[in-house]
Amino acid sequence: MGRITHLRDLIGIIKDKASQSKAAIVSKPKNLSLNLALLRATTHDPFTPPHPKHITTFLSYGYSSRVTASAAVEALMDRLQSTHDSSVAIKCLAVIHHIIKDGSFILQDQLSVYPSTGGRNYLKLSSFRDNTTPMTWELSSWVRWYARYLEHLLSTSRVLGFFLCSTSSTAEKDKEEDKVSALTNSDLLREIDSLTSLTEEICKRPDSFHMQGNELMGQIISLVGDDYLSSINEISIRVDEFNQRLSCLSFGDSVELVCVLRRLEDCKERLLALSTRKRALVESLWCLISEMKGKVGDGKAYKEEGRLLLTFGKRDSGSESARFGDRVISYGDSVRFSSARYGLNGHALQIVESVESYA
After folding, report:
1. For 18-30, how does the pLDDT look when each residue is reduced to its tens digit (9 = 90+)?
2. 213/56 Cα distance (integer angstroms)
3. Burial category of 257 from C-beta neighbours within 10 Å (exposed 0-12, middle 13-18, buried 19 and up)
4. Is-above-0.85 flag for pTM?
5. What is the mean pLDDT of the chain?
6. Is the peptide bond before 115 cis (omega within 30 degrees of 0)?
7. How far apart are CA 48 and CA 218, in angstroms?
């Protein structure tokens, strides 16, 4: 196994040298330094993270002109979507993460609009596989997860109006509580729903024992960990705002809020295992969520007559099916919310979807 690893490392070094030599020959003079900086930041070494010097050099191309920044993002995306090497792919994703975190506004803007069509599979890596060795196969699962995570991060940043973990968004973050207090309930729900989706994606991080001690994976986990703390802070601000509005929430808004709170609570155990930083902030959020659920309702889901129902408050011990018609109005009277089609009255909510799709 050691010989294979060393041979692969040697092949990787040769590929890196060949790529840089090719770039020196075929690149236009104005793009040569950009392409070399990108190649040096995204080598074939599966253990060593991109050197900070090479990351800084690449990010510097976002401080000259929009044309240069656009060329940098295009070169990065071309390398990401053309490689079949898991090490190169995950380092390209790390560079994207650094753009979101530390890049200039111009570079971030070019990243956010590429490609112009957008779409859910923004980075097009859902089917990425590198089966060269067992390690690269395992690393491929990280590539697929990391790409999905960054897609969620970009999507959430669009919803919030600023890049969640960006060091250049400090001014926007300072005004965050004032901005949140001015949001409508529907906009506030949309933001907390997006932040919750991001949190759920963090919880899907692969459990790869063979990656323990890998510096490259360690850096990625650290970057995502910083995002996690930022997202928890943003969620806390919005949950606290809803806590102030509980008395004036409509039934529909209360339903959607409880659904989001339940999704967050489902992440609790996994999140506590992933990070122990800022424990006080995290614990205060779980306490607030528990308190709010007690005020709004327990939001328990159960099955009845092929439907999935969500009730608020304690259920009576008598026959629930006998009182089904009293609690839920007909399908034709249902109201469309952003998350699904619901039928409701003042006591319960009928989610007109199959139980299987909900699960």
Report:
1. 554 454 445 554 5
2. 25
3. buried
4. no
5. 77
6. yes
7. 10
